[in-house]
# Entry
Amino acid sequence: MFIINITYKVDLTEVESHLEKHIEYIKEEFSKGNFIASGKKNPRDGGIIISNLEDKAELEAILDRDPFKINDIAIFNIIEFLPTRVGKGYENLLK
# Structure
């Protein structure tokens, strides 16, 4: 499992100009089952994606298609972790 911490490199005006395509990309990856959660950070200096993929190289290839990455809008920091405890109802996250 991975947490992707996205940090904007440009001002929000430029982020907004690529946001629609980024959202389309995110929706596509959710439909494929590659992402399980995503959202904006507060304060709004980027976002977070949680992926249940097991292979980092596969995830990196998927992230390379993100319009924010293609257009050099943000830095993508990938953090791998192995959940060992989860709250009730989230047992499916344990592998």
